[in-house]
Amino acid sequence: MTPDDRRHMAHAVALSRRGLGRVWPNPSVGCVIVKDGVVVGRGFTAPGGRPHAEPQALAMAGAAARGATAYVTLEPCAHHGKTPPCANALVAAGVARVVSALEDPDPRVSGGGHAILRAAGIAVTTGVMEAEARSVQQGFLSRITTGRPLLTLKLALSVDGRIATADGESRWITGPEARARVHLMRASHDAVLVGGGTARADDPELTVRGLGIAHQPVRIVASTGLDLPRGGRFEAAMPQGPVWLPHGPAAPAEARAYWAGRGARLVPCAETVGGLDPDAMMQALGDAGLTRVFCEGGGAFAAALVQAGCVDRLEVFGAGLLLGDGGRAGLGALRYGPLAAAPRFELVDSRSVGRDVWHSHRRV
Predict the structure, then answer these.
(1) Where is the active site (predicted)?
(2) Model pTM?
(3) For the residues 268-279, what does the mean pLDDT come to?
(4) Any catalytic annotation for residue 205?
């Protein structure tokens, strides 16, 4: 890997981030085409997943693509779907070299795109900035390899780990800068998820607001019995975008009919002790095509997801606020035995956001 390879792949990785939250079930890919050291074309996966990054970059490059190098954050696809294979498009354009960050684990590709390129005499270099590209692609990779989407858990906590006062007041623990950051995180995920308890207590809209972004993620409320607030903010905001409702097999027929009649997509899930089975729910969301889900609580629901090993990333916003042991805990009870068995997450970033502190972790 040369310094130029890294520089151009960093450009492609930055482009790939632009599609996050808007391209599922497809991966968000970035592509940069370079000729004689000059960028002649670039693209990233379009909203809805098509067109892919490579044909957009090739269209921008035009004839300059012949003899050029293409930097792609994921192996070019090799299968005929709704669009022809991107590997074939690169061959037809006459590129001389392709540099990719990751091999695509999708069985329809899985080395096949690189094989098409090599068979055409194109030089292929792989593994350039693999870790950075893998971080962006984690949701897609998780869905392909495990069947479930990436799950990010957001917590907004007082210094002593509380999410609300004893009587449930929680607006606002963190400041406006932190809340704006959370809305940006919502926008970069396919869906926003809360439990039924949070929906009943807060009646949240779960929309992206204040950023000038028209696109809305899927809003998911997991409720075993579909006993959700009617006539409030959540229901009023339903026309703004898709609403999915995971529920248990015994959810009342009247509740199912009511929410289906309001346009919600019902997602039947198996139950376990205490509520919906977290693994079954996440598999159902993966089956439906989601790759990145952003969970905003509440405490018991979040604990169930942690306990089941479903949480991949933690985004924790800490406020300089003390609520005491009467406040509501940010996370419900966990059963893990000795300390060594407690769920562990690795700190990957930490910074100030307004008057608050933001810590980003990933599962070890």
Answers:
(1) 54 (proton donor)
(2) 0.93
(3) 92
(4) no
